[in-house]
Amino acid sequence: MPSSSSANNETDKLSAETLYSDRASNYDTSNGGWHVKLGQDFVRWSAPAPGSAVLDLACGTGLVALPMAAAVGRDGVVVGVDVTTAMLNLAREKKIPEGAARVEWVEANITEELGEVDAVRHVVAERGGFDVISCCSAFVLLDDPTSVIRRWAGMLRESGRLIVDVPTEDLTMQYLFMSVLSTKLGMAAPYDREWVQSMHSLERMYEDAGLVVEKSWRTKSYIPETWYEDKESVRDDVFDKQTRELYVRFAQEGRQEDARIAWRDVWKLGVEGGNGKVYEGYPVYVRDSKSYMMKEEKGPSTLGVAPLILCGRPTTGECKPSPGYME
């Protein structure tokens, strides 16, 4: 299990604030705008009732918080918390949907500082906690996720839901560039996903926090899936395209040519992990934790780094499945 003593600790990891400040301006539209779709699905999966209180952590540009606000309506409450000023500034500029709850945007660390956020304290005091806490595309950026889950679970109402996603253990293009290649060059990696060994890696965290994990499924890829042939020309074209459009930090830090050379070995790793081809895609594992038990939904397994989305509720209390939640 990961802990604060993980090898990929605060001093070794690329600052989330630095990473997302650089990406803020094109975050919503990058790679076909898949973050927007994932944010909408987060809301569909959690299906907050009108009037609910929602806490969206690592809210970024508001891709989860704003559709949550529309779902809960004027009688609801939505608090979006993020550490990156540039992302929050973009969120604040967006129009709140008509009839939606007002969103309170807060700049703060989503781990240790949450208990000091006035908007969070107010909801916990007045409502007994949040109905939904979400953290989309950010959980593996945290240093001590086990402790974080416990803190977040303590902010849920008795029937509240916690929905989180993490990448799987598969070798996708994103993982090869952001983690393997960066590490090979001695550069700080933005996240630690090495502790994710299977679709079940987060279960113990949830159970330790008093939550019950119930349902799992895997979605289609959020970006067009591509299987790259193991050819030198393909390998070089992929490197040029990816470092030009997405992974620009190698050039920014003067390591582009070093990265190009190191990419040859990283590519081989991707070929081995992809049974002779290198995979690019972003399917999603979804896992739901509530206070009642459901059978795990089984489906075909496909290769790819997919965030494992966990949704949890406290082990006490009664709740029923939401019709809008089922995949």
TrEMBL record:
- TM ranges: none
| Residue ranges of every copy of the Methyltransferase domain listed in the record | 54-160
Highest taxon above the source species: Eukaryota
Q: Which InterPro entries match?
A: Methyltransf_25 (IPR041698), SAM-dependent_MTases_sf (IPR029063)
CDD domains named among the record's database cross-references: AdoMet_MTases
Which stretches are annotated as coiled coil? Answer: none
Which is an annotated GO molecular function term of this record?
polyprenyldihydroxybenzoate methyltransferase activity
Q: Please state what the protein is called.
A: Methyltransferase domain-containing protein
Source species taxonomy:
Eukaryota, Fungi, Dikarya, Ascomycota, Pezizomycotina
